[in-house]
Design a protein that fits this description.
alpha+beta; Four Helix Bundle (Hemerythrin (Met), subunit A); 3 domains; three-stranded antiparallel sheet
Length: about 325
């Protein structure tokens, strides 16, 4: 029997001490058997196995959806090659059936399967750990190389083309640094501009939204507020505690403006577009949209990615997401 959809998985051979040999499919960190294989394994009739499985689901001992899969298999039937959809059951079902039939062979199989799975999980963890270590080592090597290239770019006689290549590599190195710090949960919020020159009001924000609708000819639903939460989003970036701003710098206010407007979902349509537009407008009015070389601190693609990331994030991830935004806004060295 050949299972076409299991070809990327692994096959283990199970041989009972006094019973049959069975090809066991390993997929998604569990094992899968058909009712026919279960019958052979436990030395029971297929009808008996089928009845036990029905009772397991009916009594809600297990949930059917995650424990059963239908795969197309090719098998020989009466000299003909036939392809059919066959139900496979995972280890949870196998164990449950084994307990119900109270089979010695079932006990032997559970011991074997548990040991095999443990071996695969431990080895898989070890392999992944080695890969991560190797990847981090490569990142450090790349960062060291970029620093050396930066020194070369300062030398006399280096062409503008070479300097441009170094600059591009340096941009990727900065992103790698942020991702590496994010991965190790050591991402810190950098210091920003002390005080905002421009204060965003609700009226000014509404004007930006209206300009967006005119320019992009959006539907009437774009920017239509569902409740008062949009005003709350703007007010939130200026909130104080004990007489001091909760978000004292321009960068902190901008990061939280993007987060609050995106996350509060105050409009019937256009929430992410409005949040991104207000974020850019706020940066521009406060004079920090561009860096000292006249380039956007956060380019268009990065802004799209950030806005989508905020929309899909959990509330508990707010702090780390705003730290990512602050690091991207930080003046490039």
């Amino acid at each position: 029997m050949k299972n076409k959809e299991f070809e990327k998985g692994e096959i283990e051979i199970y041989k009972a001490k006094d019973g049959p040999q069975i090809d066991v499919q390993l997929e998604a960190e569990t094992v899968w058997l058909t009712q026919k294989q279960l019958a052979v394994l436990f030395d029971k009739d297929v009808r008996t196995v089928n009845e036990h499985i029905k009772n397991i689901y009916r009594e809600e001992e297990l949930n059917e959806k995650p424990t059963i899969r239908n795969f197309r298999i090719v098998q020989n039937e009466g000299g003909r090659t036939v392809e059919r959809g066959v139900d496979f059951y995972n280890l949870d079902v196998i164990i449950s059936v084994g307990y119900r039939v109270k089979s010695l062979r079932g006990t032997q199989f559970r011991i074997w399967a548990t040991n095999v799975l443990r071996k695969h999980l431990v080895e898989g963890y070890t392999i992944n750990k080695k890969r991560l270590t190797a990847q981090r080592s490569k990142i450090r090597e790349l960062q060291d190389t970029v620093r050396l290239l930066g020194n070369i770019a300062l030398l006399d006689g280096v062409s503008d083309e070479a300097k441009g290549i170094v600059q591009i590599i340096a941009e990727y190195s900065r992103a790698l640094n942020i991702l590496d710090d994010f991965d190790h949960q050591r991402l810190a919020a950098p210091k920003g501009t002390k005080k905002a020159k421009y204060k965003l009001t609700y009226e000014a924000a509404r004007n930006v939204i209206e300009q967006m609708r005119i320019r992009f000819k959006g539907s009437a639903l774009v920017g239509q507020e569902k409740d008062k939460s949009f005003q709350g989003s703007i007010g939130a970036i200026y909130q104080t505690f004990d007489g001091k701003d909760v978000y004292p710098t321009v960068e902190e206010k901008a990061a939280h403006l993007l987060y609050f407007v995106t996350k509060n979902h105050s409009f019937i349509d256009g929430n992410k577009r409005i949040a991104a537009a207000l974020f850019v407008c706020f940066l521009q009015r406060n004079g920090i949209l561009l860096d000292k070389d006249g380039r956007k601190r956060i380019d268009d693609n990065a802004l799209v990615a950030l806005t989508l990331m905020i929309a899909a994030s959990k509330p508990s991830e707010k702090e780390i997401i705003t730290k990512v935004i602050l690091n991207l806004l930080n003046e490039k060295k």
